[in-house]
Fold:
Amino acid sequence: MPNSLVIAIDGPSGSGKSSVARAVATELGLDYLDTGSMYRAMTWFLQNQGIDVTDAQTVATLAKAEVIQPSVDPSEPGIRVAGTDVSEAIRGPEVTSAVSAVSAIPKVRELMVNLQRQLAANSKSGIVVEGRDICSVVLPDASVKLFITADPEARANRRAKENHEDVSATKTELAKRDLADSTREVSPLEIAEGARVIDTTHLELAEVIAQVIDIARAARG
Structure:
C-alpha cells in the first residue's frame, strides 16, 4: 500500500460511484481507477479472440492481465487492450451481458485484483479506486472506505438517462447484475467491514461529491 491517500469506493451499478469517484479525484488532485472497466476490457479481449466466455476453464487459461491498460487520469479516463482504445466498445450490450460471468471466474479476479493493487501502490499522488469488492478484497486497508448505494428505481433512472435507454429494461438488467454480483462465490457484492455507507437516492451528485471530499480531507488531515 502507498503512503498517500487511498479512497476505495464500492457499490452496485447505477449508484453514482463512478461519477463521484472521478469528481473527487479531480478535486483533490488524485489518480482515478475504474476497476469495472478492467473487467469489461477483459471480457472484450476474450470475445475479440472468439473465446466462449461461459467456458471458465478456457477463460482462466487465456486471460492476460498485461493486455489491460487503464488510464488513471481523471481528466482523461479510458482503457486500452493491447494498445487499442476500447473505452466505448466495452459499454456495448455484448460486453455488458457477459461481464458478470467473466468477472466471477477466480483466475480473472486474481489477475485483475493484482493489477489493481499494483496500480494503487504505484500512485504517487494518491488514488480513488472504485468498483465492486474494492473495500473488502482489493484495498481493505484503504485510508477511506465507502459503499455508495441507492434504491433500484433511482439507479435505473440514472443509468437509463446516461445510456439513453428504456428505464424498465434498465431496471431489469440492473436487477440481474445485482443478483449475479451478490450471489457469486468469489468476492460477492457486500458492504465491507469499516466502510461508510452513503445512500444517494435522495441526494444530488454535487451533494455526494462534497460529502466524500469532506471525508477524504478529514482522513488526510
Observations:
- The chain has one domain: 6-220.
- The longest helix spans residues 167-183.
- The first strand starts at residue 6 and ends at 10.
- The beta strands are 6-10, 31-34, 68-70, 79-81, 84-85, 127-130, 144-149, 196-199.
